[in-house]
Amino acid sequence: MRTEYPDPIRERIWSSASELYHNAARNTIEFASEGFDWRNAADDSQMVHSVQGERIHPIHYMNLANLRCGGNLKHETEVGGAATPVNMDMAPLPS
Fold first, then answer.
1. With 0-12 CB in 10 A as exposed, 13-18 as middle and 19+ as buried, what is 86?
2. pTM above the 0.70 mark?
3. What is the rounded distance in angstroms from the CA atom of residue 57 to the CA atom of residue 44?
4. Is 48 left (phi over 0), alpha (psi -120 to 50) or beta?
């Protein structure tokens, strides 16, 4: 049973409810940016690499860039107030 494992081991093997919730929320944002189509899913080569070596989904990079611009950043896929799925092959936005 999982209760027989020491806490540090248990925390590494199983996710908490909070961690599951945050992962599901993050995955929903990523999947939405891909048009809810698994064929558009970003692969490792399309991820933004952080200085810590982490791979960051392009939508999170774009959201951070938008926050830094005070919300005034418009992406070329936004047409008439409705955004189309983000093309994961596009070049990163300037910071």
1. buried
2. no
3. 9
4. beta
